[in-house]
Amino acid sequence: xxxxxxxxxxxxxxxIATLLISCESKPPEANVASNASPTPAATVxxxxxxxxxxxxxxxxxxxxxxxxxxxKGDKNILELDENFKTDGGPDLRIVFHKAPxxxxxxxxxxxxxxxxxxxxxxxxxxxxxxQVYEIPKETKLTSFKSVAVWCAKxxxxxxxxxxx
Length: 164
Prior knowledge:
Layout: H1 2-8, H2 12-22, E1 41-44, E2 50-58, E3 63-64, E4 66-72, E5 75-80, E6 85-86, E7 92-97, E8 118-123, E9 131-135, E10 146-151, E11 156-162
Antiparallel strand pairs: 1-2, 2-4, 2-11, 3-6, 4-5, 5-9, 7-8, 7-10, 10-11
């Protein structure tokens, strides 16, 4: 208890200064691991239409940006934002997957996913920038928890975004 005896000898101003100096000044987000999955968001617009969005997390290849699944009129739309970017590949597709977090499912060394757990939406239109995909009406969106950039030729998951 040496600390207690030394604190009692400090003036109130010195005590406050000591406490302030000893506290970490990092913002709360600095305590989050850098490879942790970003928190996805579900929102409802002023028309009562729901949207689900999440940020891409890299798996086998650098992948970034945000994916948003929303309803526009009678159509379900997947939109990749203007910050979307991934590496090129021989046969890249946009897929919906049943699992929310593919970082452990599509793990090294193969980075592959099982055919029973995903559906292909369409070929990836571009490796960067804003793009929009219309989701087939028969797709049961509640069955899928994430969207991924996946190489069909190599069964390799480049990156994914959780859709709450």
